Structures are given as C-alpha cells and as structure tokens.
Amino acid sequence: MSALLEVDDLAVRFGDVDALRGVSLRLDRGQSLAIVGETGSGKSTLAHCLTGLVQPPRATGSVRIDGQELLGADPETLRGLRWRTVALALQGAPFNPVATVGEQVSEPLRAHLGMGAAQARERAGQLAAELLLDTAALARYPHQLSGGERRRAALAAVVALDPALVILDEPTAGLDPATSRDLIDRVRSLAATRGFALVVISHDLPAAARLASRSAVLYAGELMETGATDRVIGEPTHPYSWALVNAYPVMTTTKDLRPIRGSPPDPRDVPAGCPFHPRCPQAEAVCWEEHPPLEASRGRLVACHFGGLKTMLTATDLHRGFGSGRARTRVLHGVSLTVRAGEAVGVIGPSGSGKTTLARILAGHLQPDAGAVELEGAPLPGSWKRAARALRRRVQLVLQDPWDALSPRLTVAQLVREPLDVAAAGDAEERDSAARTELAGVGLPTSPGFLAARTHELSGGQLQRVALARALIVRPRVLVADEPTSMLDASEQARLLVLLRERHVELGLALVLVSHDLAVVRKVTDRIVVLEAGRVVEEGPSHLVSSAPRSVTARRMLDASPILAPIEANPGLDTPDDGGLEMAATEGG
C-alpha cells in the first residue's frame, strides 16, 4: 500500500535562490511529522509544495498525495485535492478582514460540499464547539478575535471537510505559552478522533515534540536528520540538530542560552560539501569537499560524514595513585567519561575527590596507572615528540592558578605566542598577529604597553584570560579548564564564565569544566559528572544533577551552594528594619 504523502528529490528555486534541495520524505495515513529548523531553512516553502502551491519550473522532483502527483497537475485536479484530501493552515491565519470569521470557516463547506448558507453556518458552529471556540466569535471580524481564537477558527476551516492530511505552518507562533498548550492539546485530540495525518511546520521545538511522533530537521533547504521525535529532538545526533535543540530556552535546562555559532548561509551561495560545515564544531576537509548522503545512523537518518556528533574525548576506567609501596595513595578508581563535539561537561566534587588529577590526565599532562584516554578514537600520546605533539595540542589545559601556570619571565605577547613558537607555526609576524587576535578575542587590550607587560603587572582576572588565550591560540578541539574561576572575585568570575561560554560556542570546542562550585558548573555545561574519593558517583544532565541529585555527594554540594536569601526573623535577635539580605546556604539552593 502506497504512503499518503510521498516526496522524492524535491527541489525549489526562486530566481537564484535555492529554497529546497533534494528533499525526500514519506508519511503514512494517521502518522504525524514535525519539520523544524531556523528561519530561512525552507520550512514554509515545503508546506506550500505539499499543497501544490509551488509548481514547475520553480519546483522539480515529485510530490504525491494519495498517489496523485501535484507537480505539474492541472488546476482542476489541485482544486479537487485541496481541502478534501490535503488542507493547509498558513502561518498567522490570514483571514479576509471584510468578512466575518463564520463566513470564512463555512466557505469550504459551501464551495466543496454545496451546502446552503444556513446549513454551513450550523456546521461551522459545530466545528467551533469542537475546537472550544466560542460560537459567538463566528459573528465577529478577524481583528476582533485574539490570536488564539484566530488559530482555532483557522483550524476549524482546515478540518471542515475531514481531509486525510492536515498541514499546520507555525501553529503556535506569537501565542502565549498557555494558549499554545491549549491549541496543541486540541490538535492532538482532533488528530486522534478524526484520524488525519499531520505535518507541523515549526521553529517551536516543544510544540513540535508534543504534536508529532516523527521529526525532520531542515537546514539550507536540505534534510539533516529524520526519525522518531524522541530521538531527533530528545537525543539529537546531527551537529545542527544538537545545536538547534541546545539553543532553545526551556525549563528543563539550567545553563545560559547558547546560540548556534555563525549564521545560516545565503541561499544564493550555499557552501559546497555539507552546507552546515562553516558552523559545525567537528568539520574536517571531507565536509568542505563532499556532500554527505542522508543515511541510517544511530536509529535515524543523518546527513553527516561521521554519522552524527563525534565523540571527541573518551576516558575509560582510569586509575591513578601517588607515592610508592604502602605509602601509595589511590586517587582515581576506574573513572570513565565521554565528551562529544561541541559539548560542555562539568566535573564536580569536593576537595580531594580527584578532579585535578583527572583534568591533568585528560589533557595528557599526567599518565594513568591503568585505563586509557582517546582523542577522536586515537590514543592520546604521552610523548611530546614531534609526531605526537600535533595530536596533543588538540587538547589544552587551563590551570586553576595562573600565577603558577604562566612564566614571570615572559611578556604577555610572548606567553600567548609561545605555543606557536614551539610548533614553528608561520613566521614571527604571523605569530604576533595571531597573539593579538587571540588576546582581543578574550577581551584584553592589544596595545604595545599591555603586550610588553609581565605577570606581576596584571590582575588575577587578566592573567586567567591570558592563560585562556594561550590555550586557544593553537585552535584545540578540546579545552579542559581546571577551577578557572576559583581564585577570582564574583565580577571577574562572571566575566570569565561568559567569555568561556562565548569562546566555547564560537570555536566549536568540546569543553570539560572542573569545579567544586555547582552553581558555576550548571550555568555552562550540558552534563555533570560527580566525583567522590576518586570514583564517579553520579552522571546526568546538568539540570537534573543540579536540582534533583541522586548521590549523597551531589546533594551535599547542592545544599551547600550559596543563595541570596532574606534574613529570617529570630525572636532572640534584633532584625534589621530594611529587610536586608545575607548569604545563606539553604537546601535546594
């Protein structure tokens, strides 16, 4: 039995703009599909194609509804399919401003079923009631209705003829959260009772996830990832899907918003190879040169040469001790963790839990007694010989104490440039230019006086940013930051964290942030690993570990986290009249 909707190699070109490029998908009766992506990705163009509103020569390929080809179909065939077989609710519910809403809801009934005015009005009232729309709204004009009421009225018109396929273009755009949720619930109820297939075009990821069992991610007119919604949106694997989901503000995350680095391509000049490669944190030469096919990977279809996000750093069963004989102290006991491309992972634990030892092993500065560290699937070498040096430079470590990490004998310019000097990368002028660029990138001056300054002339915050610039100048793939803010005041700490997050996004780094401060880690990271006495005692999404931890260690750290709380009245003490604030450690902080 053929699918209800079949799209094969669909391409749309408006002048010199490629709106869609080689899109293929299918939808069976009763199924639901969400099509998501940034503005300009081609979502609305695809919606128009699914109802035959875009025709050759602008559109090529094939679009079939219930076996009937839409591209090149005559107007009479298209009129017969629209409303009865496929119906589209456009973004913004464009109503005629000089006709009542009821007249417009009943129009498909009169035009396609030949109903009289009275019968059509009665049926429109029934549809309004089904959609929980006050029937009195049908006598009003569009401008007299709220946004939510207009969306319900548009939906009433769309389902009036019981089409087999309903297409909703941005159904929740501009609605408040409560109205949006009510509308989503009503659409789901209608789809269940009437049995129509549903295509939802949206940039609203939570709405798409609630409305559709399957999802497709569009970028620059191409499909990047398709599959079950719980995988594509719940566990995205294409770097674009992952970045899109992580950029969305939801209550189930504690980290600050993280936009996708760079900008979408000009549709008149889409990059060769993978169109996402200029913004991708794991792009390599093959991504610039070859176009990736949409292939099965990790339980969905993914257009990526690597099958989706690469695992940049893997630590497996790490053991490490110090001392010898009976005096030997075991610091790590079988620690394992992974960090994917572009991901930020926090490592927290009390003093003495093994955090710094783990950071040094991950960066190759310390060798484990047992276990292994791999960078992009290859063992991280312990040697600094020339053959291994280039690989080791791909992981950089920023230490807790910049006074200890930076030589007092070198100037700022020399400190930042030194990694390039050691690697003999470019000539002296190019290295100087790179050092100035990197200093500017971390918010530091590039004046001759500052470049000539030495460590004793700088503040702690400036020194830590110099250390960060020094680490980033070799363009690592992984940055390990060991307590980078613990010696800074609150203002400098906030400045460095914002800077770290920005550089993490802009450079597409995989980040490991080591800290004893849960309040700091949860603002920057996607996942948190909790250490206690050299063992991993908990691991999970940052919002869960920082709000509802399962381990005693994480709960203890959460309880001790500082919050600003009003001073509670105490009968035995004088209470200030101004309701002042004190720093308090309270449960659930």
Search tags:
single chain, 589 residues, alpha/beta, Rossmann fold, 8-stranded mixed beta sheet, 6-stranded mixed beta sheet, 24% strand, disordered C terminus
Task: Describe what this molecule looks like in 3D.
There is one protein chain. With 589 residues, the chain is an alpha/beta fold. The protein is built from 21 helices and 24 strands. A hairpin with a 6-residue loop joins strand 13 (311-322) and strand 14. It is elongated, with a radius of gyration of 29 Å. The model is unreliable at 579-589 (pLDDT under 50). Among the domains are: 5-85 and 163-268, Rossmann fold, CATH 3.40.50.300; 342-365 and 383-552, Rossmann fold (3-Layer(aba) Sandwich), CATH 3.40.50.300. The strands form 5 sheets. Strands 6-7-8-3-9-10-12-11 form an 8-stranded mixed sheet, with helices on both faces. The longest helix is centred in the first third of the chain and has 18 residues, at 177-194.
List the helices and strands and how they pair.
Blueprint: E1 5-14, E2 17-27, E3 32-36, H1 43-49, E4 59-65, E5 68-69, H2 75-81, E6 86-89, H3 101-113, H4 117-130, H5 147-159, E7 165-169, H6 177-194, E8 197-202, H7 205-211, E9 214-219, E10 222-228, H8 229-232, H9 239-246, H10 285-289, E11 295-297, E12 300-302, E13 311-322, E14 329-340, E15 344-348, H11 355-362, E16 370-375, E17 378-379, H12 386-392, E18 395-398, H13 402-405, H14 412-423, H15 428-441, H16 448-451, H17 460-472, E19 478-482, H18 490-507, E20 510-515, H19 518-521, E21 527-532, E22 535-541, H20 542-545, H21 552-560, E23 562-566, E24 581-585
Parallel strand pairs: 3-8, 3-9, 6-7, 7-8, 15-20, 15-21, 18-19, 19-20
Antiparallel strand pairs: 1-2, 1-4, 4-5, 9-10, 10-12, 11-12, 13-14, 13-16, 16-17, 21-22, 23-24
